[in-house]
Amino acid sequence: MAVKINFYSGVGTVTGANFGLIGEESKFLIDCGLTQGGQEDRMSNYEPFAYNPSEMDFLFITHAHIDHIGRIPKLVKDGFRGVIYSTIATQELAKYMLEDAVNILQGEARREKHEALYEKEDVDLALSLWKSISYHDDFKINNEFSVYLKDAGHILGSCMFEFTHTKTEKKIVFTGDLGNTPTPLLKDTDMVSDADYLVMESVYGDRNHEDKDERKEKLKEVLNRVIKRGGTLVIPVFSLEKTQVLLHELNDMIEADEVPKVPVFLDSPLAIRLTEVYKKEFDNFNEHVRKEIRDGDDIFHFPKLEVTMHQRESESIHNIKGPKIIIAASGMSEGGRIMSHEKRYLPDENNALLFIGFQVAGSLGRAIKEGKKKVKMNGTSVDIKAEIITVNGYSSHKDSDHLLEFVSNSEKTLKKVFVVMGEPKSALFLAQKIRDNLDIDAVHPNTGDSIVLNDL
């Protein structure tokens, strides 16, 4: 039997990564994430898997974002008992991410009067199946495949999986999400130079980011402008990576007196816990950041920063008069404490809402970003009069030109590129760009496709 790549989900959308690598004696899964967006997208997570989970041998996790790990407990609930592999950092982060997901999904189920996607015991069982592999170590999985982990540079612990077929020595690489190198905190994305087949992301496949210096200057300008007029700046963040990058950047600006020292609130229990993991895993940081730490800088803390772990502390933020900055999850305004802050501050034109992360189609954040003047939040109609600002340069994904550059490193060996994990416009654009510029066969598969690799 020839080797096949199966595209279960994560095609035609940015979220819901779930792919299969099927051989003569191998049944592997790569990622098992939640589909995020509107009501229809969320309900798709409750549908049965396109395979029998109990027949799958291994699950390989590229990184700990919920759109790559969020359906793992359902996979276990439905019968998976294989081994889950990731880096050590991903394993640590996933514990907090999945425990938080349980609470969110159970709250959602109560409001919408249906059964929760999974329970805490499903999370606990999933975590008990988890094992770690280090970067840059060859690991023999079985007689058919070995795997080698490379640093994707996307978030702490993110990796690419290079699967080598033992008989033919052909390499099949699943990139997960690729980092926007150079990143403020992490090491650069490792090069892949000899892939035969590549399954790659395309979140920003059709556009490029702002220059990083321009991004920092824009953030500084926004901070100073909103503070000067006495407003509140509300920043929806993803608890994982975006929060830590933003804290590091604010640390630099505030300690250098580039912006005034005003109260800054990190109002996300999950982000607070994940930041503690980042502090422990500093060996994954780039040399510049490691030097800052060696020189005594607490890179995630600065004057007037307060972390608000408990709900009563969160509610007390509103009693603070004058200019302030509130950093809260979720990053797409789909639940979490950010919604109470948005309800309070969006109706006032003196305030501002700053997006620094991708807003998936169908999400509340996307609607606000695209200019809606009135939205519903938990059944309440909210007028939007605050200034809405977007700074795109904080993306932790490679942009179009750098995705092409990444592919070009394997130009001499690549037989086919599968472009996934992007909205259709973005993925199709990138596939065409690869064909036009590199003369490599690049396709945008459909959900449910099973592609046979005939030379393996």
Question: How would you characterize the overall build of this protein?
Answer:
This protein is of the alpha/beta class. Helix 4 packs antiparallel against helix 8 and helix 13 packs across helix 14. It has two domains: 263 residues, 4-Layer Sandwich (Metallo-beta-lactamase, Chain A); 183 residues, 3-Layer(aba) Sandwich (Rossmann fold), CATH 3.40.50.10890. The chain starts with a strand and ends with a strand. Helix content is 32%, strand content 20%. A hairpin with a 4-residue loop joins strand 2 and strand 3. The protein is globular and about 70 Å long. The strands form four sheets. It has a seven-stranded mixed beta sheet. Strands 7-8-9-10-11-20-21 form a seven-stranded mixed beta sheet, covered by helices on one side.
Key features?
Metallo-beta-lactamase, Chain A; 20% strand; alpha/beta; 456 residues; Rossmann fold; 22 strands; 2 domains; seven-stranded mixed beta sheet
Question: Secondary structure elements and their pairing?
Answer:
Elements: E1 3-9, E2 18-22, E3 27-30, H1 39-43, E4 58-60, H2 66-69, H3 72-77, E5 83-86, H4 88-112, H5 120-128, E6 130-132, E7 138-140, E8 145-151, E9 159-165, E10 171-174, E11 197-200, H6 212-228, E12 232-236, H7 242-255, E13 264-266, H8 269-280, H9 287-294, E14 305-307, H10 311-316, E15 324-328, H11 338-345, E16 352-355, H12 364-369, E17 374-377, E18 380-383, E19 387-390, H13 400-408, E20 416-419, H14 424-438, E21 442-443, E22 450-453
Parallel strand pairs: 3-4, 4-5, 5-6, 10-11, 11-20, 12-15, 12-16, 13-14, 13-15, 16-19, 20-21
Antiparallel strand pairs: 1-2, 1-22, 2-3, 7-8, 8-9, 9-10, 17-18
Helix pairs in contact: 4-8, 13-14
